[in-house]
């Protein structure tokens, strides 16, 4: 209802039902409506990915970008924009780069049949630092100011210009990741008890680790391909969900997805409406909101975070 153009509930009903046919309704159906769907997908997928990784690593400070997927996607986008790749191919480029980076991180963190947590963190942080350096270099050597601004828009995070084609592409992989995430809820509950007890319950820890990280990587890659860098959702939202339903993954994961979608939808509405017709970067706005919220959580739950 809000943004550069404001609509009443009646206007929206008329446009969605097809009773109103004009340029305004076309703009709503082809621009704003897919944007709302994309915001829902981004928020839900990042929150689910964060919840999965926090549960797997038993660390409440983990976020979906641990595998370096966002840094890899941003680096690929920066290079692609500089080389003049058509904008229609950027979401697919971001997804492929994010998944490639996540798989590389997993390969570097492999220990026996499972995953070493320390290696996973070290590989993710190292690759993120490497790709961030490449992005800085590309920005420095960019041939024009417009190229620099295009790269910065991905760094700042935004849903502007993402329509039904991008939604259709990303929703396939986000859907697969979400189904895997929900099916893995009992496994995640077992792993919370420790690997020895999980094995006694019939869970294979090594296979479970790979399944959880791959599901989280699919969710993160899909989100990054739609919105660029959008932080703090996967870090903070799982904390919010745990306050309502505890740590039982059967309830915790769906609620995280619901809260994540709500947070990004609300933030995107603010990004469109606070300085309309100009848009604020979604990732920047979420960081401005997320940092104080995270500090409040960290202060109140110091024993949980230590």
Residues in β-strands, percent? under 5%
Number of strands: 2
Oligomer kind: single chain
Q: Please describe the biggest sheet, giving its number of strands, its sense, and whether it closes into a barrel.
A: 2 strands, antiparallel
H-E order: HHHHEEHHHHHHHHHH
| Whole-angstrom Rg | 20 Å
Describe the structure.
The chain is an all-alpha fold and 306 residues long. It has one domain (39-305): ABC transporter involved in vitamin B12 uptake, BtuC (Orthogonal Bundle). It has 14 helices and two strands, in the order ααααββαααααααααα. It has helices spanning 9-17, 23-57, 69-82, 90-108, 117-141, 145-156, 164-183, 185-191, 195-200, 205-227, 233-245, 249-273, 282-300, 302-305, and strands at 110-111, 114-115. It has a two-stranded antiparallel ribbon with strand order 1-2. Helix 3 packs across helix 4 (90-108), helix 3 (69-82) packs antiparallel against helix 6 and helix 4 packs antiparallel against helix 10 (205-227). The protein starts with 8 loop residues before the first helix and ends with a helix.
Concise synopsis of the structure shown:
By secondary structure, this protein is an all-alpha fold. Helices cover 75% and strands 1% of the residues.
Keywords:
single chain, 306 residues, mainly alpha, two-stranded antiparallel ribbon, 2 strands, 75% helix, 1% strand
Strands, helices and their partners?
Layout: H1 9-17, H2 23-57, H3 69-82, H4 90-108, E1 110-111, E2 114-115, H5 117-141, H6 145-156, H7 164-183, H8 185-191, H9 195-200, H10 205-227, H11 233-245, H12 249-273, H13 282-300, H14 302-305
Antiparallel strand pairs: 1-2
Helix pairs in contact: 2-7, 2-10, 2-11, 2-12, 3-4, 3-5, 3-6, 4-5, 4-10, 7-10, 11-12, 11-13
């Amino acid at each position: 209802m809000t943004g550069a153009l404001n609509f009443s509930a009646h206007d929206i009903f008329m446009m969605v039902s097809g009773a109103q046919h004009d340029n305004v309704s076309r703009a709503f159906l082809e621009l704003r409506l897919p944007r709302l769907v994309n915001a829902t997908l981004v928020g839900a997928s990042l929150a689910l990915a964060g919840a999965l990784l926090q549960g797997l690593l038993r660390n409440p400070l983990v976020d979906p970008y641990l595998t370096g997927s966002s840094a890899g996607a941003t680096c690929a986008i920066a290079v692609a924009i500089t080389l003049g790749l058509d904008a229609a191919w950027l979401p697919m480029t971001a997804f492929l780069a994010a998944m490639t980076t996540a798989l590389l991180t997993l390969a570097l963190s492999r220990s026996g049949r499972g995953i070493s947590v320390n290696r996973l963190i070290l590989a993710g942080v190292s690759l993120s630092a490497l790709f961030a350096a490449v992005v800085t270099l590309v920005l420095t050597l960019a041939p024009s100011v417009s190229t620099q601004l295009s790269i910065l828009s991905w760094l700042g995070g935004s849903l502007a210009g993402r329509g039904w084609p991008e939604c259709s592409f990303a929703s396939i992989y986000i859907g697969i990741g979400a189904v895997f995430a929900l099916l893995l809820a009992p496994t995640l509950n077992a792993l919370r008890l420790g690997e020895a007890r999980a094995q006694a319950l019939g869970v294979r820890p090594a296979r479970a680790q790979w399944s959880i990280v791959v599901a989280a990587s699919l969710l993160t890659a899909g989100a990054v391909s739609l919105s660029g860098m959008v932080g703090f959702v996967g870090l903070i939202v799982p904390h919010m969900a745990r306050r309502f339903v505890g740590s039982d993954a059967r309830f915790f994961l769906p609620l995280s997805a619901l809260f994540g979608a709500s947070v990004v939808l609300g933030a995107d509405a603010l990004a469109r409406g606070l300085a309309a017709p100009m848009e604020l970067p979604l990732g920047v706005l979420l960081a401005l909101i997320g940092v104080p919220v995270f500090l409040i959580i960290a202060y109140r739950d110091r024993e949980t975070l230590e």
